[in-house]
Amino acid sequence: MNALARRPARRWHVWAGGLAIVLAVLANAPRLGLLGWDRHRTYAAAPLHGSPLDGSPLTQTAVVFLSGDMGLDLGMSGDLAHGLAAHGYRVTGVSSPVAFAQHRTRAEAMGVVTDAIGSALGAGADRVVLAGQSYGADIIAAVVPDLPAPLRRKIAGVVMVVPADSVYLRADPTGIAYLGAPDIRPAAALGQVNWVPVSCIHGDEETQSLCPLLHGPRQHAIALPGNHYLQHDARRVLATMLGAIAAMRRPA
Questions:
Q1: Rounded to whole angstroms, how far apart are CA atoms 142 and 111?
Q2: How far, in Å, CA of 76 to CA of 69, rounded?
Q3: DSSP assignments along 152-168, one per residue
Q4: CA pair distance 95, 196, nearest whole angstrom
Q5: What is the pLDDT of residues 215-225, one digit of tens each?
Q6: Do 84 and 91 form a contact (C-beta atoms < 8 A)?
Q7: What is the domain extent for residue 7?
Q8: Which pLDDT tens digit goes with each residue over 103-126?
């Protein structure tokens, strides 16, 4: 084989090697701290004029929000957290790639969520809405059925945005870690939850969504246009979340 014939093969190997390095870095971005180091971030509630729907200050109901696997600075999660705060809710944001930079046990996943709830309650909230987007919604779906009874009384509602029907207990923005057998399939256990209202927002083109699998009397699936990325329309997603939370906060 002459030198000219060898050059394309060498280029292919160079490109393949470079791609492998990039994928390896992205897959380990959470461990490397490339998506941040802080597990919790607080978003102060913006002051609002007028009375909320149920007549109580919005700040008494806080939101614990788990981000997608890109964290709170990339993707839609940051927009949603800021938007909730701008509408009067104090938000305790959890950066999923920091909290799940390495594989967690179910007990450790529960600890991530209960610690965030404790932080929100310790800051003065009376009750908490549990919310999550993408990977964060997966974790919410996995832990809600097993929340301890004392905390259940403090949960005003659950809002999940594009949760999958399978849960993996390590965040991976490349999605490679999500190709094997899942750690948890949450549909059956979450479908039995009747002690709290659950709103599940999904894309009408999604094929692996948890939302259509939930049929409990207090579980409500909301379909929006698009696939898992919901047409990247953070405003529409935020408005849908706010409507779901407002409905949860109205007196029965």
A1: 12
A2: 11
A3: HTTEEEEEEES-BSSB-
A4: 24
A5: 999 999 999 99
A6: yes
A7: 3-249
A8: 999 999 999 999 999 999 999 999
